[in-house]
């Protein structure tokens, strides 16, 4: 499963080398540094001009909006003024034009011409028209910091058919905001655009109301109008008095149907073009200088065009109607925390791209592509979802982080070259093989000794890894050792096998350590020692030690076997005469020291010779083993059963509590041994004669006890066999040991009663009360 191993290595490498880590991977610190710098500039307002210009360019990238059929502009151009030969337009001419418009039954009329003072002739006729036309809306100008106010027509003011036509202009003279309400001296005033839109929508049952989710905002139909705050979007500390919203103003291209005043007076405008529409009457003459620049004026494209104020108000009306009827939102902005995360994200992308590609040319191309993507996202957000997202700060963060990483890499590359040159000059003087690796485990510096060890030229090895030349398992092990050093940073030494290109395998000891240059480049430096000969010596010593251990074990086993042969009977496995004498001597010493009773039982099988002669020696041997096993089972573990030879056995009973217990032990032995034996399909029966000698201070040596027991045993045989006899001085030594073969004995099935009723005077008492 080589692919699994390769996948694990790549996964480990990706986890270790992915540049959101600290140390010599600067993506995270550079991202944070650039993002904090850009955000700080933005919060202090230094980026506001750039952000507003960027917003204008985004508006210019949007497709042209279709002509709004609900709005008609009656423009008073320079030709109209030349024909009238006076300005302001007399009330009579204005009244005639308005009468023609009213006759075509528009839904609402907006008169974007000041009529706070009469302009004769025709003032009375105009006032009469004002008082009889409920759909006619006049204008007023509210006083601000730049100009005095202009009062509305008195009759229209009394009928509350007015709206202010103040326009909010940014510091760069661009109109980007729409003012809906303005409160002056505690009195709320409504803008001309909002008044016209609400009058138009009232016929459709749409009235302004407080938004359910936020009562401080106005909702008109399907649209909610988000209030602009001083620091929304690219603004910083903007004057957002009243109820202001961001506006997407149409223009400067013709986006509304426009007719001239003279066309209306001459009856050249069809009634269908006016009916059920919003008609805005205002100046479009360039000589009057009632013009404004908008986001789409194209000031930075060499053909800047301003639009008249009446068209500004028409755009405001169109945007309000679109929000109310189509649910199209006005321009919105992200919350401040989200905008900061947006900036941080593009800073991270710039740093990450430059860190990954490492090439300045490829980095520039990548940043260009990311910049195009950023522009596309911002344009799409503005055009499709009406969101003004920070483009300039994100672009600055992207480019700034990319340049910072590129500069860092350039400096690091220069330092890396210097470090390589220095390392080359140093390690080539070292006789041991030395290698230097980067974080990708690639060889970047090698000395001649290492090249000789691997058996490849230097140019073939540089920028390669162990996996390119070593066996898989060796390369995996070395990779793991190197990764441990990169992870911990601690110096370590390890031993591994190394097979060169010629197939020769060495045992090497590698000492690894990390080194860092002035630019933060991290190197793994390894020094190799050939320990093949040492390993061979160690292996030879291990083999020698193993052979010695094996020889010692065999000697101990032989010694144990010899010791067993010297002290144990080879047939029955019982202690022989030598071991019996030793144990008897030890028992005597204990008996003397603790004044204890000790007994020796001498056993001789009755009739064993007949069985041996009748059934053969093999059967006799089986019988002797069976007798030995029965003796062991009916005695204590502390007792000793020994075979002296032939059919003679000796039982040593140390530490006996009462002398009467010796008889019980002898009786038990007699009863146990006289039971029939089933051997090789034959049923055999044998009895035994037992002689007993007890330890007394008068007879204190082992030989005496054995002789006394032997004499007592022969006395038991004379008395009829199959019984035991306790030694007493009255026994005649002359009647001692006689070979059993000279006096054939008959089997006596009845067991003797045992010892006399009274033991001889002076014998110690205290054989065990119970048998083992």
Low-confidence stretches are: 11-23, 734-772
Largest sheet, in brief, is:
6 strands, parallel
Strand percentage, roughly? 15-25%
> Strand order within the widest sheet?
4-3-2-13-1-12
Shape label? elongated
Range of helix content: 40-55%
Distance between the termini: 69 Å
Annotation field: number of helices = 22
What integer is the average pLDDT? 85
Total number of β-strand segments?
29
State the assembly state of the protein chains: single chain
Report the radius of gyration as a whole number of Å.
61 Å
Secondary-structure-based class equals alpha/beta
SSE map:
Blueprint (H helix, E strand, L loop, with lengths): L1 H16 L9 H17 L4 H14 L9 E6 L1 H7 L6 H13 L4 E5 L10 H10 L3 E5 L13 H5 L3 E3 L9 E2 L1 E8 L2 E4 L1 H11 L5 E3 L7 E3 L2 E3 L17 E4 L10 E4 H5 L12 E6 L7 E4 L12 E2 H18 L5 E2 L2 H22 L2 H25 L2 E2 L3 H36 L6 E4 L5 E4 L1 H7 L3 H4 L10 H17 L3 E8 L5 E12 L5 E9 L1 H36 L9 H18 L2 E10 L1 H8 L1 H17 L6 E6 L2 E9 L3 H14 L3 E3 L2 E3 L2 E8 L7 H17 L5 E3 L46
Parallel strand pairs: 1-12, 1-13, 2-3, 2-13, 3-4, 5-14, 16-17, 28-29
Antiparallel strand pairs: 6-7, 6-11, 8-9, 9-10, 14-15, 18-19, 18-22, 20-21, 21-22, 23-25, 23-28, 24-25, 26-27
Helix pairs in contact: 2-11, 2-13, 5-6, 8-10, 11-12, 11-13, 12-13, 19-20
């Amino acid at each position: 499963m080589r692919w699994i191993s390769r996948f694990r290595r790549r996964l480990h490498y990706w986890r270790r080398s992915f540049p959101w880590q600290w140390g010599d991977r600067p993506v995270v610190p550079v991202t944070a540094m650039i993002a904090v710098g850009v955000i700080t500039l933005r919060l202090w307002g230094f980026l506001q001009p750039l952000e507003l210009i960027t917003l204008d360019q985004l508006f210019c990238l949007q497709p042209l909006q279709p002509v709004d059929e609900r709005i008609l502009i009656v423009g008073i151009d320079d030709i109209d003024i030349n024909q009238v030969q006076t300005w302001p337009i007399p009330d009579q001419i204005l009244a005639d034009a308005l009468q023609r418009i009213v006759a075509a039954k528009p839904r609402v009329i907006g008169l974007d011409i000041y009529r706070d003072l009469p302009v004769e002739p025709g003032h009375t006729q105009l006032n009469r028209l004002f008082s009889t036309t409920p759909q006619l809306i006049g204008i007023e100008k509210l006083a601000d910091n730049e100009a005095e106010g202009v009062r509305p027509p008195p009759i229209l003011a009394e009928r509350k058919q007015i709206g202010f036509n103040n326009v909010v202009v940014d510091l760069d003279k661009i109109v980007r905001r729409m003012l809906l309400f303005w409160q002056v001296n505690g009195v709320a005033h409504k803008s001309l655009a909002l008044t016209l839109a609400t009058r138009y929508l009232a016929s459709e049952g749409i009235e302004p109301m407080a938004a359910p989710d936020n009562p401080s905002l106005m909702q008109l139909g399907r649209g909610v109008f988000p209030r602009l705050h001083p620091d929304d979007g690219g603004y910083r500390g903007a004057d957002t008095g009243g109820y202001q919203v961001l506006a997407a103003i149409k223009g400067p291209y013709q986006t509304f149907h426009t007719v001239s005043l003279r066309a209306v007076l001459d009856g050249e405008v069809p009634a269908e073009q006016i009916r059920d529409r919003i008609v805005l009457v205002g100046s479009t003459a360039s000589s009057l200088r009632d013009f404004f620049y908008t986001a789409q004026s194209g000031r930075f494209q060499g053909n800047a065009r301003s639009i008249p104020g009446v068209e500004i108000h028409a755009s405001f009306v169109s945007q309000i109607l679109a929000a109310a009827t189509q649910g199209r939102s006005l321009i919105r902005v992200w919350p401040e925390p989200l905008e900061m995360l947006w900036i941080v994200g593009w800073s991270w992308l710039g740093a990450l791209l430059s860190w990954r590609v490492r090439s300045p040319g490829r980095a520039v191309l990548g940043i260009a592509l990311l910049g195009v993507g950023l522009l596309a996202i911002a344009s799409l957000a503005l055009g499709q979802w009406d969101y003004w997202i920070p483009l300039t700060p994100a672009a600055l963060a992207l480019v700034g982080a990319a340049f910072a990483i590129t500069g860092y890499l350039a400096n690091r590359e220069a330092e890396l070259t210097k470090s390589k040159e220095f390392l080359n000059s140093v390690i080539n003087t070292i006789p041991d093989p030395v290698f230097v690796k980067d974080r990708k485990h690639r060889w970047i510096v090698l000395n001649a000794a290492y090249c000789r060890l691997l058996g490849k030229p230097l140019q073939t090895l540089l920028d390669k890894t162990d996996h390119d030349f070593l066996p898989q398992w060796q390369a995996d092990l070395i990779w793991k050792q190197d990764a441990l050093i990169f992870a911990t940073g601690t110096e370590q030494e390890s031993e591994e096998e190394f097979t060169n290109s010629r197939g020769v395998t060495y045992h090497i000891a590698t000492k690894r350590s990390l080194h860092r240059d002035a630019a933060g480049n991290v190197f793994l430096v390894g020094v190799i020692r050939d320990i093949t000969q040492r390993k061979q010596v160690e292996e030879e010593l291990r083999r020698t030690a193993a052979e010695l251990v094996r020889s010692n074990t065999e000697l101990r086993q032989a010694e144990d076997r010899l010791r067993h042969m010297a002290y144990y009977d080879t047939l029955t496995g019982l202690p022989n005469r030598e071991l019996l004498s030793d144990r008897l001597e030890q028992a005597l010493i204990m008996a003397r020291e603790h004044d204890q009773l000790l007994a020796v039982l001498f056993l001789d099988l009755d009739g064993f010779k007949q069985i041996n002669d009748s059934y053969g020696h093999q059967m006799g041997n089986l019988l002797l083993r069976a007798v030995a096993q029965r003796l062991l089972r009916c005695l204590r573990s502390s007792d000793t059963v020994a075979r002296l030879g032939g059919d003679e056995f000796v039982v040593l009973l140390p530490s006996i509590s009462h002398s009467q217990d010796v008889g019980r032990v002898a009786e038990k032995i007699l009863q146990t041994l006289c039971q029939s034996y089933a051997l090789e399909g034959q049923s055999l029966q044998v009895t035994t004669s037992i002689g007993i000698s007890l330890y007394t201070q008068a007879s204190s040596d082992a030989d005496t006890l054995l002789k006394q027991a032997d004499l007592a045993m022969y006395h038991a045989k004379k008395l009829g066999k199959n019984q035991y006899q306790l030694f007493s001085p009255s026994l005649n030594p002359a009647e001692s040991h006689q070979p059993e073969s000279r006096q054939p004995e008959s089997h006596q099935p009845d067991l003797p009663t045992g010892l006399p009723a009274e033991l001889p005077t002076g014998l110690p008492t205290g054989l065990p009360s119970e048998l083992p």
